[in-house]
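Risk register update: the risk of archive-format incompatibility is retired. Evidence:
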Amino acid sequence: MKDTILDEFQDTVIELLVRNKSIIDLITKYQDSNARVNRAIVKSVTQCGCIKVHAKKQAFPEDGTFEEIRNSMKTHLEGKLCESCRDLIEKDIGRNLFYLASICNTLDLNLYDIMLKEHERLKMLGKYSLR
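Archived output:
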């Protein structure tokens, strides 16, 4: 069932993408949609104020276990997104997914297969695939 929603999404993107079929157009649209996601998050901090960023150097135990190190890392965020900011960010991420799917379609790649392969790599490498 889960694989069908991604395939269905990718098929819908094929039907709806009319004007910007050039890979060059798709790459720039994808970059622009990514910038819009970033901008919406920044506006949640600077204009709305529903979330705050308190960033500082990440401190973690040098000789700690993997779990201790993972648990000591922070997001630097305080607060929760308000409904308005959440809606805008979700919309922008959706547009970003649209252009990602468009790029996959143009390159004859299947988004679901890519996710499966990446999931398998992550499971296989475990904590050695840290990012």
